[in-house]
Design brief:
alpha/beta, seven-stranded mixed beta sheet
Length: 339
């Protein structure tokens, strides 16, 4: 190698590869604390040692160069995936027992939605589209809206009925994205907490008023963050799924922070008691969410033109108990007349 440029190229690639190895053990959708990095191959260490010992390097130049490589790597990691898709590699569908969940939630959902002025519904943060397909099967004209390209791609893997379509958009842009009105809207599965600024919520609710018919209904469901903060809840229930070479475990760790923030670490593990080690971290990542509470959401909904009809603690219509309910479910009605 003649000169520092060749050494820099080799050293930069070695450092990036090593950093990538350490990062790969900890990158995915929502919960973790047990992220162990893979062992660095000896080949990389030998190559790194050879590069560092090059006579044209001195300590200061090496230190500065390594800092620049690491900063570049971390900046690239913090940059969102295409379309800011936090879930581009998450097979979300396999972690939820969808038929069982739909059967459990259907009676309450239908009780609410049957009161809507028209049999049309938009699912905000629809994910892989299971609720949309269920409602389309019940005769609703259904639209699923989500910010994740990968989720919507999975939602459309099977042919769509004529009364179902999907739209890629942010919740705040729902009015521009759909350009029509609905009798009802649903937002299930903790979608709202991805809107981390109060301004984002205000924009979303103002846009939502415009896409609902007068007296149209909205049903929101998120985790009950009052319970999480008061009880310092650190994790959600584990989810297990069988896999051909072991068992897949979905672990969701949480860390309540100040000012209503929550550090959420979803982690996918593979468990195989015959392997060494028996638990492998498949993916893990950390995302910071805003744990909105009832007292945060209700005034914003009312200011946007909604009237709160009922508050529940689950999606079967149970009573909301601030300290014990797993969920916060709000049912509201659009009180604005058509403009």
């Amino acid at each position: 190698m003649g000169g520092t440029s060749g050494v820099k190229d080799v050293l930069a690639q070695v450092v990036k590869d090593v950093l990538a190895l350490y990062s790969s053990g900890a990158e995915e959708p929502a919960s973790d604390e047990i992220c162990s990095a893979p062992e660095v191959p000896p080949t990389y260490l030998r190559c790194l040692g050879t590069s560092v010992s090059h006579p044209l390097w001195n300590f200061k130049s090496l230190e500065k160069f390594l800092e620049s490589v690491i900063e570049e790597h971390m900046a690239a990691r913090e940059k969102p995936a295409s379309g800011d898709d936090l879930y581009s590699r998450v097979d979300y569908r396999r972690f939820v027992a969808w038929p069982k969940r739909i059967r459990r939630e259907a009676p309450f959902l239908m009780e609410v939605l049957e009161k809507a002025p028209t049999r049309s519904v938009i699912d905000l943060g629809c994910g892989t589209g299971e609720h949309c397909r269920f409602l389309a099967g019940k005769g609703f004209a259904a639209v699923g809206l989500d910010r994740s390209e990968s989720m919507l791609a999975k939602a459309q893997e099977q042919p769509l009925p004529p009364n179902l379509r999907f739209v890629l958009a942010e919740l705040q842009q729902v009015r521009e994205a759909v350009k029509t009105q609905f009798g009802a809207a649903i937002s299930l599965g903790n979608t709202l907490v991805h809107l981390t600024r109060r301004q984002d919520l205000e924009e979303a609710f103002a846009s939502l008023v415009q896409v609902l018919e007068p007296r149209g209904l909205i049903l929101f469901q998120i985790l009950n963050y009052e319970r999480i903060f008061e009880g310092n809840i650190r994790h959600l229930p584990l989810s297990f799924r069988q896999h051909e070479d072991g068992e897949i475990v979905f672990l969701r760790l949480m860390e309540p922070l100040e000012d209503g923030w929550v550090r959420f670490c979803p982690t996918t593990l593979k468990y195989d008691p015959q392997a060494d080690p028996p638990v492998e971290v498949v993916r893990s990542r950390v995302v910071e969410l805003r744990g909105w509470r009832r007292e945060d959401l209700i005034p914003l909904l009312e200011n946007a033109g909604f009237s709160i009809l009922s508050v529940h603690g689950d999606l079967i219509g149970g009573l909301y108990q601030p300290r014990t309910s797993h969920d916060l479910v709000l049912v509201a009605q659009n009180m604005k007349d058509r403009e």
